[in-house]
Amino acid sequence: MSSTRRLLLFFTLFSVSNIVLSASFGPLAGRDDHDHDHAPLRKRLPSTSWYQRDDHPVHNLFKRGKRDTTSDGTNYAEVGSAAWSAGYPEGKPDVTQLPQEWVDALNAAVAAGKIPNIPPSTSTGGNPTYGSLDPMSDEVCSTTYKCRKNDWIWDAPEGVFGAGFDDGPLPTSDPLYDFLQQNDIPSTHFMIGINVLQNPKEFTTAFETLGDDIAVHTWTHPYMTTKTNEELLGEFGWTMEIIHNSTGGRLPKYWRPPYGDSDNRVGAIAKEVFGLQTILWNQDTEDWSMGEPGSQATPESVQAALTKWIEGPKNPGLIILEHELSNYTVDAFIQAYPLLKSNGWNVVSACQLDGGSAYQNADGDDGTVTHVSSVLADNEPPVSNSSAAAPTSAPTSTGSSVGGASSHAGTSTKQTTATAKSASVSSAATGATQSSAATSMRWHAAVPSTLAAGLVLFVSAVVFA
Ligand SMILES: *[C@@H]1O[C@H](CO)[C@@H](O)[C@H](O)[C@H]1NC(C)=O
Ligand SMILES: *[C@@H]1O[C@H](CO)[C@@H](O)[C@H](O)[C@H]1NC(C)=O
Ligand SMILES: *[C@@H]1O[C@H](CO)[C@@H](O)[C@H](O)[C@H]1NC(C)=O
Ligand SMILES: [Zn+2]
Predict the structure, then answer these.
(1) What is the tens place of the pLDDT at every residue in 135-175?
(2) CB contact at 8 A, 266 and 236
(3) Would you state the torsion angle of the CA atoms of residues 214, 219, 225, 227, taken in this order, to the nearest 10 degrees?
(4) Pocket residue to mutate for ligand 3, from 110, 385, 386, 426, most atoms within 8 A of Cβ
(5) Nearest bound ligand to CA 113?
(6) pLDDT at 384
(7) Domain of 229: which CATH number?
(8) Ligand 1 contacts CB of residue 245 (under 6 A)
(9) How many domains would you assign to the chain?
(10) Residue 409 counted as domain residue
(11) Which ligand is nearest to the CA of 79?
(12) Is 166 a catalytic residue?
């Protein structure tokens, strides 16, 4: 299947699931309160005519992040190059091609009783079911049903607005990125792995030019609770890997489940195997469904909902589900932003709600990055049965590193653990990664993604009109 076909299929499936989801969740809260007129959105947009070409010096005046982002010292392939894209699956990750150390880490976590033994869900119209198990039970705790666990983030602190955008990077992200840059707005981009692969230019703008935070939104955007443990490894692992290898070695600390669909098992694999914390939201504009057939959401209803929340109580603070998926969703945020400021919200990047870093091993986008030899949690040694004899408590500073940066000396505990671990990684792990790299060597032209984005806008425009 060509990349274009695959992408079309992805967007088609994505749209279909959105329709199903919007149908099953009913009307948007607050839309019935909406009884005043709005000027057509287009007319209220700030003029974009003064925007300068990308390399114009005026951009430096507004630049927040540093172009020379720090790295862990490893010589990663240039983002967008053939060498960079060669190592990743083009679509749904093949569970037989996963790096062995990920599989070992999963098996170790299961053996240690850290991964709840509940079955994958069956998704019926977007709502997961678990046979005879109650989705709201302690055992399952489905986020689709709004079950809360202490370490899953649903709310922001009082007066704080956690800005985040899902589903990028996409060509439709560009106007959003311009707006974020001009207004110096920090935010988190919950990125879909295959979109990073297809849109390296937008990725680079978000990370380097804006200096924004990058978080995980899975490799192919599935209903995660329907996936087996091994399938989850692929969805998390490859997204971690592409972000790690494209940000100078940073390991994301947060992930957001597509459709908000997670549970105890999925959350535990994220946390125990990859060190990822789950971040959800406490308000949903349903902006993503604008223009979808059957959707109740319109630019006016989305705006009305945003206005209500922004002018409403400050406690808890707001984490609003928003997207960089289309022109409409981007417009919704741009329209609402002045109101956020005039209502005194403290706008921070969604994954810095606790004031910490968006990354497990780095101090933000321009701070120190500690080299890690894999994307696994805390770089714990993958307790592969065959390499169990390798010492893991006595750090070796000279062991050859899988990541190729053994010379990058550091003093933190994490660095020490990472170095120790790299000595115990089985050669099977590297073998698996390399063979999958070799079989999928290809170059991603910008054309397929531009076509696909065009299609999405065209379909939205037709349906919406
Ligand atoms: C990530 O970068 C490391 C270091 O350059 C490299 O060994 C590894 O193959 C890269 N991963 C992929 C999937 O390209
Ligand atoms: C959305 O599309 C319209 C029409 O092409 C354009 O005028 C407007 O600037 C776009 N909005 C954003 C945020 O890019
Ligand atoms: C390790 O291997 C032994 C013998 O092959 C097996 O009995 C045991 O269950 C394995 N342990 C793990 C954690 O896989
Ligand atoms: Zn999403």
Answers:
(1) 999 999 999 999 998 789 999 999 999 999 999 999 999 99
(2) no
(3) -150
(4) 385
(5) 3
(6) 53
(7) 3.20.20.370
(8) yes
(9) 1
(10) no
(11) 1
(12) yes
